[in-house]
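To illustrate the input format used throughout this study, we show a single complete record. The first block contains the structure-token representation of the backbone; no residue identities are included at this stage. The design step must infer an amino acid for every position from geometry alone.
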């Protein structure tokens, strides 16, 4: 359609700019110092860049000393309790079409470093700042509370140098076919479906907390404004870490792609029930040109990306040190997340796996 061609032209310019910057050795992913958040000194230009890219690196949320100690403590926790001697049952049917082999993700949830990081005032302040980039209320209706966080419990990455098993191909979390078929998702993307893509605001919180995914292993049943992690070790391009297509226009393209003439009527371009939305060369070659690795980060830095942003994990860790992160996103207070907290309470009290993940329950006997 004419509207799609217009989108494609603008998106191509965006992708070209990402490619050009990458070739120059530059990163288009915005960076913010945590100290600037504390001092309320993040300028409008940076905020616009974050909204345009759908991603941000927040530097120095924790001190390098604190993050490095967490890494050492986490290593001790895993080694002392014999984690690596245990058989790892299949974890992620959700990503079965995306990975080359079993990811090097440690299915632990309640270690001291994880609990401390999740409850940190610094992380709370960072998430509050990021949540407030969303339209979280309108006409007296609050979609979520940007300043009150629900603790969504997740795992850790401990990727060894030389590893080739973790690589995830480009995808978008939050389900796939339900984006087109789900009632609340249709409301989220209503301006895209009505050929008014320029009015679509990816940071509009209306209807977002109520979207329903198809129940599947490893599907996030909480509402997240941002996916994210905290670096425990130094890592960057080539170290087997995160890759992004840093533009919020990507979801416009993905949602409208199935309606083009070259796509069969019953095809949703990589959407499979119960899986992440795959971004493939067959249907999304334009987008894939913009896939770039995150810039170098240090222990204590955090990385955040919008839940509709395309992301991947480098196929091979070519670095010399373990690439380790704590997965901690932002799940602000809303009815959906309160319901999830209720489900998470007993696993917390008993030391079992978080309810969104396979019930390995390794930590029941951990010390």
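Output of the design step:
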């Amino acid at each position: 359609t004419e509207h799609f061609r217009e989108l494609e032209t603008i998106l191509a310019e965006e992708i070209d700019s990402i490619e050009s910057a990458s070739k120059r050795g530059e990163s288009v992913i915005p960076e913010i110092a945590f100290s600037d958040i504390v001092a309320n000194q993040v300028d409008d230009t940076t905020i616009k860049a974050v909204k345009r890219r759908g991603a941000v690196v927040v530097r120095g949320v924790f001190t390098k000393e604190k993050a490095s100690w967490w890494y050492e403590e986490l290593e001790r926790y895993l080694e002392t309790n014999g984690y690596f001697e245990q058989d790892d049952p299949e974890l992620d049917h959700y990503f079965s079409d995306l990975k080359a082999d079993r990811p090097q993700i440690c299915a632990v949830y309640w270690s001291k470093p994880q609990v401390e990081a999740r409850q940190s005032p610094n992380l709370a302040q960072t998430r509050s700042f990021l949540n407030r980039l969303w339209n979280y209320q309108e006409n007296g209706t609050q979609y979520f509370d940007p300043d009150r966080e629900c603790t969504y419990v997740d795992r850790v990455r401990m990727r060894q140098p030389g590893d080739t098993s973790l690589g995830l191909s480009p995808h978008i979390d939050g389900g796939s076919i339900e984006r087109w078929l789900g009632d609340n998702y249709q409301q989220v993307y209503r301006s895209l479906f009505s050929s008014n893509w320029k009015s679509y605001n990816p940071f509009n919180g209306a209807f977002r907390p109520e979207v329903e995914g198809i129940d599947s292993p490893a599907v996030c049943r909480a509402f997240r404004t941002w996916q994210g992690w905290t670096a425990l070790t130094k890592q960057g391009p080539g170290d087997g870490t995160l890759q992004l297509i840093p533009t919020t226009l990507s979801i416009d393209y993905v949602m409208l792609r199935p309606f083009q003439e070259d796509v069969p009527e019953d095809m949703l371009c990589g959407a499979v029930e119960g899986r992440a939305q795959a971004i493939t060369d067959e249907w999304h070659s334009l987008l894939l040109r913009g896939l770039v690795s995150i810039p170098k980060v240090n222990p204590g830095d955090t990385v955040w990306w919008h839940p509709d942003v395309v992301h991947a994990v480098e196929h091979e860790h070519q670095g010399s040190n373990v690439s380790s992160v704590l997965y901690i996103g932002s799940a602000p207070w809303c009815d959906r997340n309160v319901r999830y907290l209720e489900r998470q309470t007993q696993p917390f009290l008993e030391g079992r796996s978080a309810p969104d993940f396979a019930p390995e329950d390794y930590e029941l006997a951990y010390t």
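Structural context for interpreting the output: Residues 90-103 have pLDDT under 50 and may be disordered. Residues 2-23 form the longest helix (22 residues).
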